[in-house]
Protein backbone atom coordinates (compact mmCIF):
# COMPACT_ATOMS: atom_id res chain seq x y z
CA UNK A 1 0.00 0.00 0.00
CA UNK A 2 1.17 3.50 -0.83
CA UNK A 3 0.54 6.41 1.54
CA UNK A 4 -0.27 9.14 -0.95
CA UNK A 5 0.22 12.30 1.07
CA UNK A 6 -2.24 14.17 3.23
CA UNK A 7 -5.41 16.04 2.35
CA UNK A 8 -5.71 19.74 3.17
CA UNK A 9 -8.70 21.56 4.59
CA UNK A 10 -10.66 23.66 2.10
CA UNK A 11 -13.78 24.46 4.15
CA UNK A 12 -14.28 24.90 7.90
CA UNK A 13 -17.76 23.38 7.85
CA UNK A 14 -17.77 22.06 11.42
CA UNK A 15 -20.24 19.28 10.60
CA UNK A 16 -21.53 16.98 13.28
CA UNK A 17 -21.95 14.27 10.64
CA UNK A 18 -20.77 15.51 7.24
CA UNK A 19 -21.74 13.05 4.53
CA UNK A 20 -22.73 12.46 0.92
CA UNK A 21 -20.41 14.80 -1.04
CA UNK A 22 -21.34 15.02 -4.72
CA UNK A 23 -20.05 17.28 -7.47
CA UNK A 24 -22.52 19.42 -9.41
CA UNK A 25 -20.93 19.88 -12.86
CA UNK A 26 -23.48 22.46 -14.01
CA UNK A 27 -22.92 24.74 -11.02
CA UNK A 28 -19.27 23.74 -10.44
CA UNK A 29 -19.96 23.26 -6.76
CA UNK A 30 -19.89 20.55 -4.14
CA UNK A 31 -23.07 19.49 -2.36
CA UNK A 32 -22.98 17.62 0.95
CA UNK A 33 -25.12 17.21 4.05
CA UNK A 34 -24.78 17.41 7.81
CA UNK A 35 -27.15 14.63 8.79
CA UNK A 36 -27.47 15.34 12.48
CA UNK A 37 -27.78 19.11 12.07
CA UNK A 38 -30.43 18.64 9.39
CA UNK A 39 -28.75 20.78 6.79
CA UNK A 40 -27.80 20.76 3.10
CA UNK A 41 -24.53 22.51 2.18
CA UNK A 42 -23.09 23.85 -1.04
CA UNK A 43 -19.46 24.89 -1.54
CA UNK A 44 -18.12 26.67 -4.61
CA UNK A 45 -14.33 26.23 -4.62
CA UNK A 46 -13.63 28.99 -7.15
CA UNK A 47 -15.17 31.65 -4.89
CA UNK A 48 -15.15 29.89 -1.48
CA UNK A 49 -18.90 30.53 -1.33
CA UNK A 50 -20.51 28.30 1.30
CA UNK A 51 -24.28 28.16 1.71
CA UNK A 52 -26.32 26.19 4.22
CA UNK A 53 -29.99 25.24 3.86
CA UNK A 54 -31.86 23.92 6.88
CA UNK A 55 -34.40 21.11 6.44
CA UNK A 56 -37.04 19.67 8.75
CA UNK A 57 -35.55 16.18 9.19
CA UNK A 58 -32.26 14.32 9.15
CA UNK A 59 -31.02 14.34 5.55
CA UNK A 60 -28.81 11.50 4.38
CA UNK A 61 -27.98 12.71 0.88
CA UNK A 62 -28.64 15.14 -1.96
CA UNK A 63 -28.10 14.48 -5.67
CA UNK A 64 -28.18 16.89 -8.62
CA UNK A 65 -31.34 16.13 -10.57
CA UNK A 66 -32.95 16.98 -13.87
CA UNK A 67 -34.33 20.50 -14.24
CA UNK A 68 -31.79 22.13 -11.93
CA UNK A 69 -33.30 20.62 -8.78
CA UNK A 70 -31.80 18.36 -6.14
CA UNK A 71 -33.26 15.05 -5.02
CA UNK A 72 -32.81 14.64 -1.27
CA UNK A 73 -33.18 11.61 0.97
CA UNK A 74 -34.70 12.65 4.29
CA UNK A 75 -35.81 10.49 7.17
CA UNK A 76 -39.43 10.73 6.01
CA UNK A 77 -38.68 9.95 2.34
CA UNK A 78 -37.56 11.53 -0.92
CA UNK A 79 -37.93 15.27 -1.51
CA UNK A 80 -37.21 17.64 -4.38
CA UNK A 81 -35.21 20.69 -3.32
CA UNK A 82 -34.83 23.90 -5.34
CA UNK A 83 -31.54 25.61 -4.39
CA UNK A 84 -32.60 28.80 -6.15
CA UNK A 85 -35.51 29.32 -3.75
CA UNK A 86 -34.62 27.06 -0.83
CA UNK A 87 -38.02 25.41 -1.15
CA UNK A 88 -38.64 21.67 -1.15
CA UNK A 89 -41.57 19.31 -1.50
CA UNK A 90 -42.06 15.64 -0.70
CA UNK A 91 -42.27 13.23 -3.62
CA UNK A 92 -42.38 9.76 -2.03
CA UNK A 93 -42.05 7.92 1.28
CA UNK A 94 -39.90 4.79 1.42
CA UNK A 95 -42.35 1.90 1.85
CA UNK A 96 -41.94 -0.51 4.74
CA UNK A 97 -39.17 1.32 6.58
CA UNK A 98 -39.16 0.87 10.39
CA UNK A 99 -39.91 4.00 12.41
CA UNK A 100 -36.38 3.99 13.87
CA UNK A 101 -34.67 4.03 10.49
CA UNK A 102 -33.35 6.90 8.38
CA UNK A 103 -31.71 7.20 4.96
CA UNK A 104 -27.93 7.37 4.78
CA UNK A 105 -26.13 7.40 1.41
CA UNK A 106 -26.87 7.28 -2.34
CA UNK A 107 -25.64 7.38 -5.93
CA UNK A 108 -27.01 7.72 -9.47
CA UNK A 109 -26.31 5.16 -12.21
CA UNK A 110 -25.75 6.13 -15.88
CA UNK A 111 -29.48 5.75 -16.61
CA UNK A 112 -30.46 8.25 -13.89
CA UNK A 113 -31.75 5.60 -11.50
CA UNK A 114 -31.14 6.47 -7.84
CA UNK A 115 -29.72 3.86 -5.46
CA UNK A 116 -29.74 4.47 -1.72
CA UNK A 117 -29.65 2.76 1.66
CA UNK A 118 -31.41 2.94 5.00
CA UNK A 119 -30.14 2.28 8.51
CA UNK A 120 -31.11 2.14 12.18
CA UNK A 121 -30.67 5.67 13.52
CA UNK A 122 -29.58 4.22 16.88
CA UNK A 123 -26.94 2.09 15.08
CA UNK A 124 -28.03 -1.08 16.86
CA UNK A 125 -30.63 -3.03 14.88
CA UNK A 126 -29.85 -4.79 11.55
CA UNK A 127 -32.86 -3.07 9.95
CA UNK A 128 -31.16 -1.32 7.04
CA UNK A 129 -31.26 -2.28 3.38
CA UNK A 130 -30.79 -0.87 -0.13
CA UNK A 131 -33.31 0.55 -2.60
CA UNK A 132 -33.70 1.68 -6.19
CA UNK A 133 -35.81 4.73 -7.08
CA UNK A 134 -36.88 4.61 -10.73
CA UNK A 135 -39.92 5.69 -12.74
CA UNK A 136 -41.87 6.89 -9.71
CA UNK A 137 -41.34 3.65 -7.80
CA UNK A 138 -39.08 2.65 -4.91
CA UNK A 139 -38.11 -1.03 -4.78
CA UNK A 140 -35.76 -2.98 -2.52
CA UNK A 141 -32.64 -4.28 -4.28
CA UNK A 142 -29.35 -5.62 -2.98
CA UNK A 143 -28.30 -6.74 0.52
CA UNK A 144 -30.52 -6.33 3.58
CA UNK A 145 -30.31 -7.02 7.31
CA UNK A 146 -27.58 -4.40 7.72
CA UNK A 147 -27.30 -1.98 10.63
CA UNK A 148 -25.37 0.85 8.91
CA UNK A 149 -25.49 0.86 5.12
CA UNK A 150 -23.24 3.05 3.01
CA UNK A 151 -23.19 3.53 -0.73
CA UNK A 152 -24.11 2.16 -3.09
CA UNK A 153 -21.42 3.15 -5.55
CA UNK A 154 -21.72 2.42 -9.27
CA UNK A 155 -18.87 1.30 -11.54
CA UNK A 156 -17.86 3.58 -14.43
CA UNK A 157 -19.76 1.57 -17.03
CA UNK A 158 -22.77 1.05 -14.80
CA UNK A 159 -22.42 -2.73 -14.78
CA UNK A 160 -21.69 -3.21 -11.05
CA UNK A 161 -22.80 -1.80 -7.72
CA UNK A 162 -20.81 -1.69 -4.49
CA UNK A 163 -22.64 -1.93 -1.16
CA UNK A 164 -21.02 -1.19 2.21
CA UNK A 165 -21.85 -2.86 5.52
CA UNK A 166 -20.08 -0.40 7.81
CA UNK A 167 -20.27 -2.27 11.11
CA UNK A 168 -19.37 -5.47 9.28
CA UNK A 169 -16.23 -3.74 7.92
CA UNK A 170 -17.08 -5.09 4.49
CA UNK A 171 -17.83 -3.90 0.96
CA UNK A 172 -19.93 -6.15 -1.29
CA UNK A 173 -20.40 -6.06 -5.03
CA UNK A 174 -23.19 -7.24 -7.30
CA UNK A 175 -23.91 -7.12 -11.04
CA UNK A 176 -26.27 -4.39 -12.20
CA UNK A 177 -28.25 -5.78 -15.11
CA UNK A 178 -29.42 -3.75 -18.10
CA UNK A 179 -33.02 -3.85 -16.86
CA UNK A 180 -32.02 -2.26 -13.54
CA UNK A 181 -32.22 -5.41 -11.45
CA UNK A 182 -29.38 -6.50 -9.19
CA UNK A 183 -27.71 -9.89 -9.20
CA UNK A 184 -26.40 -11.79 -6.17
CA UNK A 185 -24.00 -9.86 -3.95
CA UNK A 186 -20.58 -11.21 -3.02
CA UNK A 187 -17.80 -9.94 -0.81
CA UNK A 188 -15.56 -7.42 -2.59
CA UNK A 189 -13.23 -6.70 0.32
CA UNK A 190 -13.14 -7.04 4.10
CA UNK A 191 -11.62 -3.72 5.10
CA UNK A 192 -10.84 -5.16 8.55
CA UNK A 193 -7.98 -7.00 6.83
CA UNK A 194 -6.25 -3.68 6.10
CA UNK A 195 -7.72 -1.35 8.73
CA UNK A 196 -8.77 -3.40 11.77
CA UNK A 197 -9.54 -0.33 13.90
CA UNK A 198 -11.58 1.46 11.21
CA UNK A 199 -14.96 1.05 9.57
CA UNK A 200 -15.62 1.42 5.85
CA UNK A 201 -17.87 4.42 5.20
CA UNK A 202 -19.06 5.94 1.92
CA UNK A 203 -17.70 4.37 -1.34
CA UNK A 204 -17.22 5.90 -4.81
CA UNK A 205 -15.57 4.66 -8.04
CA UNK A 206 -12.99 6.43 -10.18
CA UNK A 207 -12.58 6.19 -13.95
CA UNK A 208 -10.43 3.04 -13.68
CA UNK A 209 -13.12 1.27 -11.68
CA UNK A 210 -11.16 1.47 -8.45
CA UNK A 211 -13.20 1.91 -5.28
CA UNK A 212 -12.40 4.70 -2.82
CA UNK A 213 -13.86 4.43 0.66
CA UNK A 214 -13.99 6.74 3.64
CA UNK A 215 -12.55 5.25 6.83
CA UNK A 216 -14.44 6.01 10.03
CA UNK A 217 -11.85 6.06 12.83
CA UNK A 218 -9.32 5.45 10.08
CA UNK A 219 -7.84 8.93 9.57
CA UNK A 220 -8.16 8.92 5.81
CA UNK A 221 -9.55 7.40 2.62
CA UNK A 222 -8.44 4.18 0.94
CA UNK A 223 -8.38 3.13 -2.72
CA UNK A 224 -8.98 -0.48 -3.78
CA UNK A 225 -8.42 -2.00 -7.22
CA UNK A 226 -11.36 -3.66 -9.05
CA UNK A 227 -9.93 -6.95 -7.73
CA UNK A 228 -10.12 -5.76 -4.11
CA UNK A 229 -6.40 -5.06 -3.63
CA UNK A 230 -5.52 -2.12 -1.40
CA UNK A 231 -3.62 0.36 -3.57
CA UNK A 232 -3.19 3.48 -1.48
CA UNK A 233 -4.33 5.52 1.48
CA UNK A 234 -4.58 9.31 1.67
CA UNK A 235 -4.29 10.47 5.26
CA UNK A 236 -6.29 13.24 6.90
CA UNK A 237 -5.78 15.02 10.24
CA UNK A 238 -9.15 13.83 11.57
CA UNK A 239 -10.34 10.37 12.56
CA UNK A 240 -13.90 10.13 11.29
CA UNK A 241 -13.71 10.32 7.51
CA UNK A 242 -16.99 9.68 5.73
CA UNK A 243 -16.91 9.95 1.93
CA UNK A 244 -15.10 11.32 -1.12
CA UNK A 245 -16.35 13.01 -4.29
CA UNK A 246 -14.40 13.87 -7.44
CA UNK A 247 -14.81 17.47 -8.55
CA UNK A 248 -13.36 20.36 -10.47
CA UNK A 249 -13.49 20.87 -14.25
CA UNK A 250 -11.45 17.69 -14.88
CA UNK A 251 -12.78 15.64 -11.93
CA UNK A 252 -9.23 15.27 -10.59
CA UNK A 253 -9.76 17.10 -7.31
CA UNK A 254 -11.06 14.89 -4.50
CA UNK A 255 -13.27 16.47 -1.83
CA UNK A 256 -13.76 14.62 1.46
CA UNK A 257 -16.37 15.07 4.20
CA UNK A 258 -15.69 14.29 7.85
CA UNK A 259 -17.50 14.23 11.20
CA UNK A 260 -17.28 15.39 14.80
CA UNK A 261 -19.83 12.78 15.92
CA UNK A 262 -18.55 10.33 18.51
CA UNK A 263 -15.56 12.41 19.56
CA UNK A 264 -15.23 13.40 23.21
CA UNK A 265 -13.84 16.72 24.42
CA UNK A 266 -10.25 15.49 24.43
CA UNK A 267 -10.53 14.10 20.90
CA UNK A 268 -12.12 17.30 19.63
CA UNK A 269 -9.32 19.33 21.19
CA UNK A 270 -6.79 17.13 19.42
CA UNK A 271 -8.73 17.28 16.14
CA UNK A 272 -9.93 20.89 15.77
CA UNK A 273 -10.70 20.34 12.07
CA UNK A 274 -13.04 17.39 12.64
CA UNK A 275 -16.23 17.93 10.64
CA UNK A 276 -14.52 20.05 7.99
CA UNK A 277 -14.12 19.39 4.25
CA UNK A 278 -10.72 18.42 2.85
CA UNK A 279 -9.28 18.00 -0.63
CA UNK A 280 -6.37 16.52 -2.54
CA UNK A 281 -5.51 15.94 -6.19
CA UNK A 282 -5.68 12.54 -7.89
CA UNK A 283 -4.04 11.14 -11.00
CA UNK A 284 -7.09 9.12 -12.06
CA UNK A 285 -10.23 11.27 -12.37
CA UNK A 286 -13.70 10.45 -11.24
CA UNK A 287 -16.67 9.79 -13.49
CA UNK A 288 -19.23 12.45 -14.40
CA UNK A 289 -22.46 11.42 -12.71
CA UNK A 290 -25.79 11.35 -14.50
CA UNK A 291 -28.56 13.58 -13.21
CA UNK A 292 -31.08 11.89 -10.95
CA UNK A 293 -34.54 11.28 -12.34
CA UNK A 294 -37.12 13.86 -11.33
CA UNK A 295 -40.34 12.32 -10.11
CA UNK A 296 -43.66 13.31 -11.57
Description:
The chain has 296 residues and is mainly beta. It has a single domain, classed as Neuraminidase (6 Propeller), CATH 2.120.10. It is built from 1 helix and 25 strands. The chain has one helix at 265-270; strands at 2-6, 8-11, 18-24, 29-34, 39-44, 49-54, 59-64, 70-74, 77-82, 87-92, 101-108, 114-120, 128-134, 137-146, 149-154, 160-165, 170-175, 186-190, 199-205, 211-216, 220-224, 230-235, 241-247, 253-258, 277-281. The strands form 6 sheets. A 5-stranded mixed beta sheet has the order 1-22-21-20-19, with no helix packed on it. The chain has a 4-stranded antiparallel beta sheet with strand order 2-25-24-23, with no helix packed on it. The mean pLDDT is 96.
Secondary-structure blueprint:
Layout (H helix, E strand, L loop, with lengths): L1 E5 L1 E4 L6 E7 L4 E6 L4 E6 L4 E6 L4 E6 L5 E5 L2 E6 L4 E6 L8 E8 L5 E7 L7 E7 L2 E10 L2 E6 L5 E6 L4 E6 L10 E5 L8 E7 L5 E6 L3 E5 L5 E6 L5 E7 L5 E6 L6 H6 L6 E5 L15
Percent of residues in helices comes to under 10%
Domain module count: 1
| Discrete helix count | 1
- Shape by Cα distribution: globular
Low-confidence stretches: none
Largest sheet: 5 strands, mixed
| Class from helix and strand fractions | mainly beta
What would you report as the Rg, rounded to the nearest angstrom? 17 Å
The top level CATH class name: Mainly Beta
The first-to-last residue Cα distance is 47 Å
